[in-house]
């Protein structure tokens, strides 16, 4: 079986698996990190949202063979290490606004939130309601309003 | 059963008695009996069945739900059984409690920890609430549904905690050389007047009893609460935001490898045979393939390889249960089952408002798809799953794999949402079947596509209403609700059977559906002769009690007609409702929602406010929304999503009786609103030619960020009640109805089919039925941001 190497949450990680297996299953079923969730497998629910070299992406739709050994994959488990302090400011905001209900989508929501704030800043503005309207992550508990509040608050500390 | 004093609320109806012990128990009004259990550390217990609030016999109000509702039926159902629940005080000073309910996001582990912390004088963080496995001895008292958890467990859990504190104080009195009456307990520490102190950890073993003994306790009064009624963040919040919270799919059970099922192209179709077994077994990662009742199970190293295997399968199928049927043919069958409206005698000059609404099938699937871990051996089985009725699951699993019930262990795992979906053990039974057929442990997951297509749905139904009015009065209001049958086989049915003749008004002779309908539906207005009747037909679908069961549809129909009556009688929707509402608690939430939501403000053409309310779960909810139906809003484009009218502002006011955790209650109103809005505007499944078309979140349009109001507010109204009401479902019906009323006012057209976009051209390309699951894309790297 082919070997694949990439950087997962700061650590070089090698797996022995067929090229076609999507990164989500490599992370969950082989490496055993379960923060990124399965909700659709076709890149529409966004529950598996993680970061690839600092940008939001959905590992359910990326073949492991398409990732190289210098690619840095960050899952929710590794987010805190990308910032100062015990937690990332966005995780802290999520606690402050008590956003989660069942919690299933929230790792993906937080990863999407961080990327959305960064993207807005790269475009030269602070995150706005129009930006938040574009977040595609499904929350079946319907926590959308608190997600919006938390992103605006978390952005201030990013 | 005797009539008992009502709570000191203003409604005057027969509702929950505060802290009332079982009659004849011989203890005072606030006093309760429980046990200190013989153990090496302090363990206390109460009888959950005897402790639930009792509700008196029902006078003859116009409607049953007004005096005796589903909450009462659920709590009464458990009463005769001997059901000990225990709290343990550990040597490290923490307290542990295994809650015989399921956490699915509604916040009951948090609120339960708060209730224990309150009575035990321990920080919430030191109370560990886990979910109890299936406990057959609890009989009918291990069902999470009907927003009943806190209603039924509030008092027994407090009593247990109070007994524990009493035992700790007794031990401390000896330890500190003082008297119980002189001791103070706070934050897990007991302090004597001389300043000496002992922690609960120090006292846990000393307070233990070598034998089980009966004790009686007094509970705190509401005025001395320090934890209950203050906002507390979820106890699992940190685990959630760091990705550590575990769901069934995340459990690491040895050898329980990913397993999925290839399902039939039509609803409930069953497998005949797999034609290419050898080829499938030779695929990368695949370890096993087996034919089971619901399809072809495949076990592999990763779920991705299960998906690939399912897509490669060549299977012969037996037909499903609704071959050839579509929305229209099923609706025709529902129409045939409709009962006639029979207007009572009203003066000839009376005018009539008539309406006829249709509500389409909707999927109750959560974001976490059905998932269960099963390890079935020759002599025993162990299952882990999100299950709201684990006792029924245990029975069903035992039957499915041919083991005695005692040989099946059912562990309850926190769920990634439920909305009624996890009332059924479909996933647990299927996992057990797969494990047995394969002969190995499995971690079975449904593909997302399986959920809307083969999973539980809210049934299609119609609601017809005829109301008459004359001289400023509504003389009659009749409603005939006709529905594809709702499956109550998960346990409500059993519960109702158990209650039998003890239900008021001869309900014992009705069908389960009639009982549930009558116990939940109440038109809270003085509208003269009111009748609300349900009839059901069609039992070929996989249905269930989706969040709030009948109420969202019934109340949308009601409130749209009420707006028509108000208009016909020349009254403002708010003023009209206030004039006809019976109950002060309902009026109070309505006034609050109107005040906070700025009811009556001037709105631009094409936009409008809507107002609505609902009374259920020992409380009341009201909602005011603003909706924008202007073309530039309605016609917004979002890739793989639907837009349509946008609610731009929403206010929900709720009276849920005694509130344990205001933050949690507001969260439930937010979620309830998201659901209610989706039911009215965007979310349904389409039945065509024997199957549902929707296969994922780009087909099934639950509320998304581009649909939500930028301004949402939930407000709590305190009616001073000593009894908690239900929260989890309380926000849905009023929200669905307010959005419908706002849409009707903004467009000048009363919608009659819900969701309002159901008859639009399909907003998606239908995914394949053979294979039944879509391939995972490979272009993820071109969609980064």
Task: List descriptors.
heterodimer; A: 158 residues; alpha+beta; Ubiquitin-like (UB roll); DNA polymerase, domain 1; five-stranded mixed beta sheet; 5 strands; 35% helix; 13% strand; globular; B: 785 residues; Aldehyde Oxidoreductase, domain 4; 3 domains; seven-stranded mixed beta sheet; six-stranded mixed beta sheet; 28% helix; disordered N terminus
- The total of helices of chain A stands at 6
- Number of discrete helical segments of chain B: 21
Instruction: Please give the number of β-strands of chain A.
Output: 5
Mean of the pLDDT scores of chain A?
98
- Main pleated sheet of chain B: 7 strands, mixed
Q: Which secondary structure elements does this structure contain, and how are they paired or packed?
A:
The complex is a heterodimer of chains A (158) and B (785).
Chain A (H helix, E strand, L loop, with lengths): L2 E6 L2 E6 L6 H9 L18 E3 L2 E3 L14 E3 L1 H4 L9 H8 L9 H17 L6 H5 L10 H13 L2
Parallel strand pairs in A: 1-5
Antiparallel strand pairs in A: 1-2, 3-4, 3-5
Chain B lengths: L30 E7 L4 E6 H4 L12 H4 L2 H9 L5 E6 L5 E5 L8 H13 L6 E5 L17 H28 L7 E3 L2 E3 L5 E3 H4 L9 E6 L18 H5 L15 E6 L8 E4 L2 H5 L4 E7 L2 E6 L2 H10 L2 E3 L9 H10 L14 E9 L2 E2 L7 E6 L4 E5 L4 H12 L6 E5 L13 H13 L3 E4 L4 H5 L2 E2 L2 E10 L2 E12 L7 H8 L12 H9 L8 E9 L13 H18 L4 H8 L3 H13 L10 E10 L2 E10 L2 H4 L11 E10 L6 H20 L5 E2 L2 E2 L18 E6 L15 H16 L5 E2 L31
Parallel strand pairs in B: 4-5, 10-20, 15-31, 18-19, 23-24, 27-30
Antiparallel strand pairs in B: 1-2, 1-9, 2-3, 3-4, 6-7, 7-8, 10-13, 11-14, 12-13, 15-22, 16-21, 17-18, 17-20, 22-23, 25-26, 26-27, 28-29
Helix pairs in contact in B: 3-14, 4-5, 11-12, 16-21, 20-21
């Amino acid at each position: 079986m082919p070997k694949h190497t990439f950087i997962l949450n700061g650590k070089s990680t090698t797996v022995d698996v067929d090229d076609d297996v999507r990164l989500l299953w490599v992370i969950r079923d082989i490496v055993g990190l379960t923060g990124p969730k399965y909700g659709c497998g076709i890149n529409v629910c966004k529950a598996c949202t993680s970061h690839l070299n600092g940008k939001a992406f959905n590992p359910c739709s990326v073949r492991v063979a398409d990732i190289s050994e210098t690619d840095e994959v960050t899952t929710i488990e590794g987010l805190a290490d990308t910032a100062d302090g015990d937690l990332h400011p966005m995780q802290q905001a999520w606690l402050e606004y008590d956003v989660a209900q069942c919690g299933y989508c929230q790792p993906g929501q937080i990863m999407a939130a961080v990327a959305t704030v960064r993207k807005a800043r790269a475009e030269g503005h602070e995150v706005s309601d129009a930006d938040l309207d574009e977040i595609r992550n499904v929350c079946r508990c319907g926590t959308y309003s608190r997600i919006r509040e938390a992103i605006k608050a978390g952005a201030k500390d990013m | 059963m005797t009539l008992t004093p009502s709570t000191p609320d203003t409604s005057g109806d027969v509702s929950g008695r505060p802290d009332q012990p079982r009659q004849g128990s011989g203890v005072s009004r606030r006093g309760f009996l429980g046990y200190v259990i013989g153990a090496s550390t302090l363990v206390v217990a109460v009888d959950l069945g005897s402790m639930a609030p009792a509700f008196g016999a029902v006078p003859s109000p116009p409607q049953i739900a007004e005096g005796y509702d589903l909450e009462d039926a659920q709590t009464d159902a458990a009463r005769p059984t001997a059901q000990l629940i225990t709290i343990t005080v550990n040597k490290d000073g923490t307290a542990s409690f295994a809650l015989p309910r399921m956490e699915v996001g509604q916040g009951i582990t948090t609120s339960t920890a708060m209730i224990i912390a309150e009575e035990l004088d321990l920080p919430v963080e030191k109370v560990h609430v886990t979910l109890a496995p299936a406990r057959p001895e609890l009989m009918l008292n291990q069902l999470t549904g009907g927003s009943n958890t806190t209603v039924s467990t509030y008092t027994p859990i407090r009593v247990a905690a109070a007994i524990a504190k009493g035992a700790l104080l007794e031990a401390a009195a000896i330890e500190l050389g003082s008297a119980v009456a002189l001791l103070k307990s706070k934050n897990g520490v007991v302090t004597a007047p001389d300043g000496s102190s002992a922690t609960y950890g120090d006292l846990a073993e000393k307070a233990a009893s070598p034998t089980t003994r009966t004790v009686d306790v007094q509970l705190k009064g509401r005025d001395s609460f320090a934890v209950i009624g203050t906002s507390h963040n979820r106890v699992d919040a940190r685990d959630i935001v760091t990705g550590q919270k575990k769901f069934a799919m995340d459990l690491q059970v040895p050898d329980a490898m990913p397993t999925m099922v290839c399902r039939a192209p039509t609803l409930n179709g069953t497998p005949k045979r797999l034609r290419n077994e050898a080829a499938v077994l030779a695929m990368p990662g695949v370890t096993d393939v087996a034919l089971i009742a619901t399809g072809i199970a495949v076990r592999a190293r990763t779920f991705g390889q299960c998906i690939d295997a399912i897509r490669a399968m060549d299977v012969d199928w037996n037909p499903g249960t609704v071959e050839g049927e579509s929305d229209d043919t099923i609706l025709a069958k529902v129409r045939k089952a409709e009962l006639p409206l029979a207007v009572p005698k009203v003066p000839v000059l009376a005018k009539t408002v008539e309406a006829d609404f249709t509500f389409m099938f909707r999927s109750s699937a959560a974001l976490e798809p059905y998932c269960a871990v099963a390890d079935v051996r020759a002599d025993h089985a162990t299952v882990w799953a999100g299950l709201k009725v684990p006792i029924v699951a245990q029975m069903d699993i035992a039957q499915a794999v041919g083991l005695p019930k005692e040989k099946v262990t059912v562990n309850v795992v926190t769920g990634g949402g439920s909305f009624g979906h996890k009332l059924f053990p479909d996933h647990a039974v299927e996992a057990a079947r797969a494990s047995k057929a394969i002969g190995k442990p499995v971690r079975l997951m449904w593909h997302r596509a399986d959920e809307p297509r083969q999973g539980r749905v809210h049934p299609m139904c119609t609601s017809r209403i005829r109301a008459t009015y004359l001289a400023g009065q509504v003389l009659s209001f009749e409603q005939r609700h006709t529905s594809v049958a709702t499956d109550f086989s998960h346990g409500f049915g059993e519960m109702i059977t158990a209650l039998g003749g003890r239900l008021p008004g001869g309900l014992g002779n009705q069908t389960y559906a009639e009982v549930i309908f009558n116990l939940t539906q109440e038109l809270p207005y003085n509208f003269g002769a009111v009748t609300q009747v349900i009839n059901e037909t069609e039992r070929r679908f996989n249905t269930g009690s989706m969040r709030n069961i009948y109420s969202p549809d019934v109340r949308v129909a009601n409130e749209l007609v009420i707006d028509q009556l108000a208009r016909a009688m020349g009254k403002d929707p708010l003023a009209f409702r206030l004039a006809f509402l019976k109950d002060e608690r309902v009026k109070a939430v309505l006034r609050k929602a109107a005040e906070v939501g700025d009811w009556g403000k001037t709105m631009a053409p094409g936009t409008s406010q809507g107002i609505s309310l609902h009374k259920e779960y020992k409380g009341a909810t009201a909602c005011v929304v603003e909706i924008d139906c202007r073309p530039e809003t309605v016609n917004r484009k979002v890739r793989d999503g639907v837009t349509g009218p946008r609610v731009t502002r929403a206010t929900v006011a709720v009276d849920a009786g005694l509130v344990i955790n205001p933050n949690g209650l507001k969260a439930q109103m937010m979620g309830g609103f998201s659901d209610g809005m989706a039911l009215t505007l965007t979310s349904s499944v389409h039945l065509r030619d024997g199957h549902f078309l929707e296969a994922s979140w780009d087909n099934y349009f639950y509320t998304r960020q581009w649909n939500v109001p930028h301004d949402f507010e939930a407000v709590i109204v305190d009616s001073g009640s000593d009894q908690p009401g239900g929260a989890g479902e309380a926000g849905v019906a009023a929200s669905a109805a307010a959005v419908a009323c706002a849409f009707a006012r903004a467009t000048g057209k009363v919608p009659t089919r819900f969701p309002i976009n159901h008859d639009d051209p399909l907003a998606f390309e239908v995914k394949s039925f053979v294979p039944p699951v879509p391939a995972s894309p490979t272009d993820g790297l071109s969609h980064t941001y």
